[in-house]
Each structure stands twice: as structure tokens, then as C-alpha cells.
Amino acid sequence: MLLLLSLLLAAGPAPVTGNPVERAIEELAEKAVPAPEPSRLALLVLTPGCDALREPIRVALSGALARRGQDVLPVEDAESANAEGWAMAHGADALLKLHVTLSEERLALVGELVPTRENFFLQRHARAGLAGSRLVTAVATPDAALKALVSERARGGPIGLVPLGRLDVPLLALAAGPTRLGAVRLVAVTPAEVLLLDEHGIRLDARPLSPFLAGPRVRDASAVVAVGDFGQGRIAYAVAGHSEGEILSAEGDRLERVAGLPPVGATQPIASGGAGPLFGAFVPGRGVLADLVLPAPDPAAQPSSGRELFGAAAAPHPGRAAFAVLGCDYTLRILGTGLEAAYPEVPGVGVGFALADLEGDGEPLLVVSSATPGPRDRIRVLRPGARDTALFEAEPGEGTVVAAAAADVTGDGLDDAVLATSLPSGGTELWLLTADGSRDRR
Amino acid sequence: MRMRLFLALLLMVPAAGQAGVRPRYGGTLRVLLPARPAEPHPSRAETFAELLAVRATGETLLEVDSLGRLAPALLEAVPELEDGGRTVRLRLAPALAFHDGEPLTAARVAESLENLGAPGSPNAFLLAPIVGAAAVHAGATRSFAGIEVLSERELKIDLAYPFPDFPAVLATLPSAIVHQTPRGAEDGAGPFVAVDEGAQGLVLEPFEGFHGGRPFADEVVLRGSEGRLTSRTFPAGEAELVVRAELLASATPVELPRRGLVLAVVSRRLAGAESIYGALRALDRADLARFVRAPASPVASLLSPAGPSSPAAADPPPEKLPARLRVLLPAAPDSPRGVAARLQVKLYDRGVRVALESVAKDGLSARLYAGDFEAAIVPLWLYSHRPALVLAQVAAAVGGYDAGARFLREAAEADEAHLAPLAAALERELLVVPLYAYGLRVGVAEGVAGLALHDDGTLDLGGTWLLPMRSGP
Fold first, then answer.
1. Mutation target among B7, B9, B207, B214 for the A interface, most CBs of A within 10 A
2. What is the average pLDDT value for chain A, to the nearest integer?
3. pTM score of the predicted model
4. Cα distance between residue A389 and residue A366, in whole Å
5. CA distance A428 to chain B (A)
């Protein structure tokens, strides 16, 4: 099948055929190089979750770019983390960083064209960020051969827990998801700032929180954060007792304010996933949310009951379950895309929880911490609605799981979960729960 | 920040030690205390139960953090002394309010301090360093000459002598800021509001405007653990917290810091006072401490264990012991009667017949100040562990305002090397024998979390919360 795909994609210089994938590649090349112009172009192709696609697409795109006068330099795999520096070192005029994502419905090509020639006016150097960069995209409907790759992708290995990194600060909230360029980033809210972390938990940028509201403080420090489509930015956060939340962009791995969110009491994003964002509101003066979950902001919305919520989670790849909200009675409600009850409630769930399609079968699993007080916490993976025992249960670990998020962190096409454990020392340990067999696990 | 005690685990671990759970709001916190607390009045609070009630309803300008350092409470920052330690400027945090919604301003703070320094206030000695304090305490004037309100949020306090530790006074519970309501009651600014003092105890409700955040519990009930509840069995179904001297059989208790101090005092008017004083000093205090129901340690001097030991006082000259001795002790459920009885036996062995007389707390203080007693057993709950404040509190409890004010000044002016001799001088002058220090035990029902301790051994009920098993969904 791979051979067939390679032949299909790399078959000669024919610019336009009836193959939708080829048409998408030609479209992308056309957008990247609107007019034929001889230059050296470094090309990095990232195909998270579907390694088999990388080489055929690289070959096909190289051909399409070559036809437009480009001298294409494929970036070596080992240099992918420093592709821009590699391109500059090899005298490339620009770097085309292509993210390919594949689902049963579509093949998406998202390319970022980054100038890499040393240029005083562009102020380009290896660590200057993405000034002057340009985004090019193309989409195709996958054919049978590509759909076969999707079903192949969906077979995950055994679930395991892997240490991801350690922060020296406590965490209030955690979210994960792709930026506009497709790279997965973690966003953590601490009592003092918002942190942007890479997929390994390495700190990329930070931004201080807005000031406290005048008057009484909130006793239980608490925050919500979501990665999703919020207009100009992809990150939305709010902190109980602070004057306002913010929508941030993470372009170039820098946190930039795009807009302010209304102060506590108004509805704001509390989670975001494949079914879109979920909106809720803090109870004024408290670090908990009102019993209010909405698909869109609604200033007139009233809580359904006096019940209070600790937080919400959204599945990156929803199935029957799309969202989950945890009540202050430690009972988890699992909601569908229309916010209807999708499964029976799950009691005894701790505040670290996520919905993640770890197995790739199209239905998210529940990743939950324990609601039993104690110095050690326990992470379990449960199948929603199932009465059987946990699919996975980690040995109880030191500290308490305070937050969790789901995204495809390993790039294998399957959701993973990131869990933040608050340590007695005051720091935070990040853990990756994954079915990616290439990761060392516990 | 306060010392966080996660008593459900019986371990001193930080807040992170609660697997997967976060504080939640709601529920009733029922607290059984050694004695029933009256309506809280900071300036008059002396016993543990009274101080706990003040801790729940009042708020001080400063507090003591888990490392023993001063930290801001109602103030914006810990003030620094000026003018060689004779002046301190206080700046309040913004947007503070009392329980009734009245703004908590600098003028209100000045009024509150005036109440603390007024005639009849047992804790007026704390403010004795302020210029004009003696006149306020004597009733000659209401206002301190040394307190000036500078603005809505600022005031200046001038001291009569340099006292670098004066800000520590502003962290003691009797200095909690209150104001008189139109109906004549005292209104505080602490995490809870006292709403009822009925048969079921002192009932508190959360104060939504508390500057440190709304407390978690929806209701707190403080009761004395009298009657059938004096059983040593932890009444888990009837209370979430029990503070007691005794070991609690059915709950694993946690000991509070030993901030209780029990003194024996002899009146100088007593014929043979020196001989009785000598006999009391000669008592085996370790033996005496064994008769205390609470966790207790014998105390060799007033600054032990809170500070350096004072040298042993010279033995009094031999003198014939009186044949009879009347010993006063407070009439309260938590009165040290067991120790008094042991003392009775010990003195009987020396040929002294001791008669014990229980006296109401206010009456005991009045008789001590007037010298209308032969000997007394005086329990104190120390407001602070700072030597100057310990010595002043003891001196005031035994000798009244003047003694408290004098020893506060002498301790303020003494360098560290002279504190122990000063403590010895106080014991000798006021014929005080420190007997033992004691703490209390807290029994915590299952499902109670977040309990924290303040430096003075009182509990932070505002931060205590209940798991669903305790308070329902």
C-alpha cells in the first residue's frame, strides 16, 4: 500500500490530475511559491500519527516545488526540532514547515513559510521567532488508500504512564492542544502567570496574570484554561478573583494578548475540544464554577442548580462523550456534543481528569485521579458507561493530581493525557499517559 | 500563610497532600471546646475557647506565619519602625469592611485600639508602650495621644520608648479590630459572623466580605464539651472537631502547640509568703505535670520553653510554713483541679492544710490585682511566644496593668542576655512559680480537611472544609 501511495503521489510532473491529494499538494506549492522564482527552500514535513505519509508527501511536494524553480533541501529528521537553524546553516532562503493531519474525513496540509536568509531588515536570526512568516493551507478528501492508513493509525498499544517534566511552581489549571501551526503545546496556569510549554513540558514563554480584583480575595486559588478556536487566539484562561481573563495567541511560541475576557461572574471558556468550546462561570468570591455549561457565551444564562463544579474537560476527538464536568461532590457528569447526558455519572473522581481517545477507537476514555484524601494519588483509565474495572491503573504516586489535559502529545495520531501532580515540595510533576508504545512507560 | 495540619492524615504535610481533592464550600462545622465560649470580645478574651471564638470572628492587623515571621493581615504590609523604633506607620489593605458592611478605616482601627486600652480591659497592657496609654487606661481620656489618623487607610503610632517588637503586639488576638455597632455590640472583620448564642452554642456564619476569602463552611457551631460529651470517647456523630485536654479514644488526636501556662502565685500579704513560695518552687514540677490530663511539660522558668531559661532564684530564707493555706483557682470546666489536688497533697506532706476555692474568672483577676488572696493557681493562654509579650502577659495576669506595662517596657529595653534575669526578677517580685506548659488535643472526624493552626495555637476554622461524606452533595 505504501508503495502504491508513493507511486501515486510522486508520479511524474503532471501538475493537475483527478487525484484530490495531488491537487492539494499542487495547491499548497502554488500558494507557497505564487510565481516561479529560483531560490533554496528547506522543507520539513511533519506527519504526527502517520509516519507512513511523510516520505510520499515529501517526495510529491518536492516535485511540485521544483517545478516552480525551487531548489528543495529536505530537513533531516534529526534536525526537525531546530529546522530553522538548520535551514539557515544550509543557506536556505526560506523554510517550509508542513504539518499533515489525517482523519477519515480529510487530509489537511498546513504549511508555514519562514524566511531564513540572514537579513538585516527582517531581523532574522535563528532565535528571532517567526517575524515575516506566512501560512499556507490545503485540504483534500482522503481516498480509500489513505482511509486505510487512518484505520491502521487507530490501533494503540498498551496504556502507560511516562514522566514528562517538572516545574518548580504549583499549577492551578492545565490545557493542551495544537497551535495554529499544528504543534502541540501545553498551557499551564500558576498562581502568578500563564506558562506555555512544549510537548516535553519545557517552558517556552510566560505571561503574568492580571491583578487581583479589589476587595476580598478568593480563598481557594483556581483557574480555567482551554486551547481551541477563540478567534484571533487559541488560548483562553481565567483565574478566580482576578480582574479579567485573557485570550492569547501562541504564534512563534510567544504568548501575546489578543483580547480580555470579562471578569469573574460572566461566562468564559472553561474547556475546548473537538466538539468546540464549553463556557461556564466562576461563582463570585469562590474558586469553583457555577452549575452552568454552555456551548457559547451567554450573559443572561443562570445556573441550573446550586451545585458547584470544580472544572470541565473536553475530548480532542469526541465520540458519544464530548465533555465532562466534575461537581464539588466529586461526581463526574459525561456530556455529549449537545451537552446532553451521554453516560451515567461517575462518582469518586478527583480534580485531575480528562477525556482522551487513548485507544483510537473513536470513543474517549476517562482519565481520572482519586477523590480519596491521602498523600498519594492514583490515576485510572475508565471506559465511560462500563461497569467493569479500570482499563489501566497506575501505582499510587507521591503528591496529588491537580489538573489534566488531553491532546496528541506524542504525534502518533492518538490522544494522550497530560497530568499535573502537585508535589509536597510545592512544585509540579507532569506525567504523560499514552498508548504510544515508543515511549518508556511505568 | 499558616501552618497547615492535615489532621485526617495525622501528618504534618503541605496542602498538596490531599490526593485529587480540592477544598469545597458548604456544610456545618461543629466544634466542641473545653469550655463554652461566650460572645467573642477580643479585648477581654483570655482562655483558649474565648481566643478561638475571637480567631473565628475577628481579624488582626498582622499575623504570624508558619516560620514565626510577621505577615500582613488587615494591613497592606508589615510596617517598619521609624524614629529609632519609636514610631510605626500602619497602612490598611484596600476595601476592607466589618461584618455589618461598615468600612474598616484607620479611624476605626484607632477606636478599636482605644477599646483595648480602656479601663477594665484585661489586655490593655499590650498597648502600654503607646504615648498616652496610661491616661487612656486610667479613664482620663479616651484617645491615645500617640495615635494619629493620617488618612482613610493610614495611621501613625508613637511609642513612649523604642520597642522594635511592637508590631508583634498587632498580631495578638486581643488586638483584633472591632467596632461598636449602633446596638452596642462589637462587630469584627474576621472570617465568620456570630449570629446566635443559644442553647446549641455560639453559632457563626461565613462573612462573604472577609479580606482573606469567604470561609468554606456554611456554618460553625462552637460548644463547650460538658455533660455526656465529656466522655473520652470522640463523639464523631456529634462534632467534626473536638478540642480537649484528654486523650480521645476513638479518634487519633493531634496535639496543639503548648501555649497554655499554669502558674502558682503567692500573695505578699500572706504571713509566711516567702516560705510558701519556697515550698512551691521546691515542688517536683515533672511529677506535677504527670497529673495534667493535657499534654504537658514542666516549666523551669517563665521563658522556658518559649525562651532561654532563667537562672534559679536564690532559695528563700528558712521560715515556718503556715498551717493553713487558701488557694484560689478559676471556676471553669477546664480548670486545673487535678494539679491543685496534687499540690494540696504535696503541701499537706509539709504540714500545710490547703483549702481550694473556685472563683469566677473575673473575680479571680480582681482578687489577684487587689492582693485579696493567699495563693492562687492561674492558667494563661499565651498570645505570643515573643519573650517581652510573655513576661508582660504573666505580669499583667498576676499584678494587673501596671505590672504588665512595666515588665513590657523592661523587656523591650533589655537585650537578649538580660531577658532571663528579667524573667527571674519577675518571678521573685510577684512570687510567681511557673508550674507547667500544656497544650490541647484536637480530634478530627473523618471527612474533615484543611485544618490549619495559627502561631498562638488557635485553629483556622475559615480554611477548614468538609468532604461530601461529611456534608452531603
1. B214
2. 83
3. 0.78
4. 12
5. 10
